[in-house]
Amino acid sequence: MTFTYAYPRPMVTVDIIIIDNTVLSQRILLIKRGHDPFAGCYALPGGFVDEDESLEAAACRELKEETNIAHENLRQFRAFGDKGRDPRGHNVTVVFYGFVNPSETAAMAGDDAAALDWFPLDQLPPLAFDHKKIISLFASEIIQKSGV
């Protein structure tokens, strides 16, 4: 049985924060977007949740597609859904995070990521969407509190 509702629904996406756990100055993995919106800008890896796909599965899939990193132990951080965060319309994203040793991964850009690179958390490039806010909250709530 299928239900259709008369009112609009938001898009649902996942974004993934990947932190280099091998250096004292924490670094984050960012992709350079290959398509609009924000083509050419850096962003967190991520994308749309497919129909009948769990949030966790979507996060693992998007991370693998865009960075070639297989990470099965991602943790959920927070959800973000402020008006205007995505120029395509009302979007709610659920953010996941994980820590990796870059020398043990074969990170490379794929799918709709034109490139990727590691950036110190205190030296981020201009970011797409509300990713600067997301990373800032993550740094203050997870990194600083855990001493990671």
Here the CATH topology equals: Nucleoside Triphosphate Pyrophosphohydrolase
Q: Specify the helix fraction band.
A: 10-25%
Count the strands?
7
In angstroms, what separates the terminal alpha carbons?
47 Å
CATH class: Alpha Beta
How many structural domains can be distinguished in the coordinates? 1
SS element count, helices: 2
Q: What is the element string, with H for helices and E for strands?
A: EEEEHEEEH
Outline, from the CA principal axes? globular
Mean pLDDT: 92
CATH homology superfamily name: Nucleoside Triphosphate Pyrophosphohydrolase
Low-confidence stretches: none
> In CATH terms, what is the architecture?
Alpha-Beta Complex
Major sheet attributes: 7 strands, mixed
How would you sum up this structure, described in words?
The protein is an alpha+beta fold and 148 residues long. It has one domain (11-146): Nucleoside Triphosphate Pyrophosphohydrolase (Alpha-Beta Complex). Helix content is 20%, strand content 31%. It has helices at 55-67, 131-146, and strands spanning 11-20, 27-33, 42-43, 46-48, 75-80, 91-100, 113-120. Strands 1, 2, 3, 4, 5, 6 and 7 form a seven-stranded mixed beta sheet that branches.
